[in-house]
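Annual report, structural modelling task.

Input specification for the guanosine-5'-monophosphate complex:
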Amino acid sequence: MSKDTKKGALLVVSGFSGAGKGTVMKKLLKKYDNYALSISMTTRAPRAGEENGREYFFVDTDTFEQKIEENKVIEYAKYCDNYYGTPREYVEEQLESGKDVILEIEIQGALKVKEMFPDTVLLFIMPPSAEELQRRLVSRGTETAEVIKKRMDRAVEEALFMEKYDYIVINDDLDRCVEELHGIVNTVHQEAARNEEKIETMKKELEELSKGE
Ligand code: 5GP
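The model returned the following structure:
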């Protein structure tokens, strides 16, 4: 990924299933217009109320595997028996146009993206407690007890990788979580390494001014 300051930042948001990532993302995107959320492709069945092209592009396994072969996904992973992947074209276009692109993906994918593009910012949304996570998963009412168990087991595995993230944000209060995330992204844009052009311009201007005196 280039250090050109006009380009957006690539942000990966992960969190255990039930941590409330989806709600946090919706609110963040509604409030601020610098973000573009990548819509993933998945082989899992749509949940009640989900629409093709809005939450996900729902495809069959053959289609998914073909997209992998054609190099049309940036990364993909298997999560609880289904494929999930990030379509390449949209992400590249949006970054080019200056948007901060959010990939809401699980940990394996997140680590792959960081390896490919080291200046990716990895953000982890944590529930206030494990108990609260379980309560949210159950009260969502969209999954069977068996699926909930699988997702809780997966959280135990995922927790081993939390240290690899750049920032941990707790989703206790929705508004606070959104503001904290946005604050981090603002700070990221101020990193010296992402402002090489501004630094160079300042250096040149200073040299010219001091020569002129
Ligand atoms: P869900 O089935 O609850 O919508 O998503 C299950 C998990 O898959 C979540 O942790 C979600 O962040 C992750 N996920 C969604 N899209 C992608 C993707 O494109 N790539 C990867 N690696 N994970 C994804």
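The chain is about 45% helix and 20% strand.
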